[in-house]
Amino acid sequence: MEHHHRGEWGSNLGFLLATVGAAVGLGNIWAFPYKMGANGGFPFLIIYLVLAILVGFTIMLCELAIGRRGGGSVLTSYHKVGGKLGSFLGILALVSPFLILSFYTVLGAYCIQYVGLNFAELLGVFSLSSVSGADSFGSMLTNQPLAIGTTFLFIAICFLIIRGGIKDGIEKFNKVGMPALFIMLLIVIIRSLTLPGAAEGLKFMFAPNFEPIQTDFIGVLSAAGGQMFFSLSLAMGITVTYGSYLSKKESLVRNSLVIIISDTLVAIMAGMAVLPAAFALGGGESAKLDGPKLLFITLQDVFNAMGPFGPIFGILFFLFVTLAAITSAIALIEVLVTFVIDRRTASGKAPSRNMVVAAVCLVIFAEAALVAADGLASNGLWIPFQETGRNLGGSWLDFMDFISEGIAMPLGALIMSVLIGWIIGPKVIRDEVSLEGHRMSDSLYLFFVICVRFIAPIAMAFILYGQVSSFMAIPS
Ligand code: PHE
């Protein structure tokens, strides 16, 4: 069968580790904890979970089912299931990972640099504690050769993993990488929670605060929706591609739930690792608790303030973040690699996986070098829409992020829910879910139909609107 030529995951656990690895990334570590704290704490978590079940689960189940049914690359699978509209979706789901990779790899490269810096500090080659996190990050952004070089290194690591294939490359790496990631996270949590003053960080994240929900409910919903969507790596082709290598024996419903729960759990745990430390030793200034600043400035200051063991925790922490970035980046690259391989196979050629992975990685390096050279707009490069002063022209990273996360991803998920809910009908998903003795009960099916027809499209339209308007905003 065609399926077997392409290879398959060695086990369901391997598939799960790889897919959770794809979902757990920088978003879990640098965005979720702060968003949860700033938007109401515990009640935000409840809203997040409700959205994850109503919308995240629905879209993830569709993607897994479409991938497994289509048995091909994201373009082939969407086309098989959805005809012309499906092909359009497939193209969107190829554009997004391509653009996201332009900056995800650069952020991965900064993480590698931080591992190196803390290592140099440990060996006594360099005195990190004498410079502030802001200064070390600043010089990282302006050192273009180093940024481009480490971006190359990050992509080269991904290359080495992916060329081994689904089972012997990606699955094997995640089987070791994900447990390692988890253990490092646990160690950092213990260190962070035992710092004096750590409770403030926990309070910030968890203490219920209904004010944001009362004053700006729509804002809270949109923050939770956008985060859920990005964090689960939806509408990226990843779940379709990984699903296309999944055996018909496995349960799609259970797998979707496990992925969603694990991703949320890691996001909460990441919050317990970063926020207590940021409050105890980093002052807990709210302007510095989100995004690249949290990782590369605030937390580095925390490690600097920890004394002799600081660099060890610095190394552990940044290795953890680098691993999280690698497991997401290889998923994004595999979407493109599977696409090229399937396409060549269909036209009767026998492509060499090594060559395809090398070519895809080189093209990604070319666009990533631009983002690395830009250094978050530190180096005077021309940037599209720069003169408008809006977020989308803030840096090359923002621009790439705008097209992918701002437009292509939510638009893709919106079209997909309409396609499945209204055009071809949700039954196709039920058929794929109910193979080999798995059953989708009538009540679960009814729940799915309501979500895919009404709730998911409305939520996605809303998230699309929220994303575009936040990129269109002029930062104050
Ligand atoms: N889900 C990843 C995160 O939370 C981000 C990501 C999105 C990775 C899309 C790959 C694709 O950071």
Main sheet overview: none
Low-pLDDT stretches are none
> Mean pLDDT, as a whole number?
94
Coarse shape? globular
- Measure the end-to-end span: 58 Å
Tell me the strand percentage band.
under 5%
| The CATH homology group name | Amino acid/polyamine transporter I
Helix and strand pattern: HHHHHHHHHHHHHHHHHHH
What is the total number of structural domains?
1
What bound compounds does this protein have?
phenylalanine
Structural class: mainly alpha
Question: What is the C-alpha radius of gyration, as a whole number of Å?
Answer: 22 Å
Percent range of helical residues: over 70%
What does this structure look like?
There is one protein chain. The chain has 476 residues and is mainly α. The chain has a single domain (4-471), classed as Amino acid/polyamine transporter I (Up-down Bundle). It contains 19 helices and no strands. It has helices at 2-6, 12-23, 26-38, 42-70, 74-123, 133-142, 144-162, 165-193, 199-206, 211-215, 217-231, 238-243, 252-280, 291-305, 310-346, 353-374, 396-423, 427-433, 442-472. Helix 2 (12-23) packs across helix 8. The radius of gyration is 22 Å and the shape is globular. The mean pLDDT is 94. Phenylalanine (PHE) binds at residues 22-23, 25-28, 100, 230-231, 233, 236, 238, 328, 332.
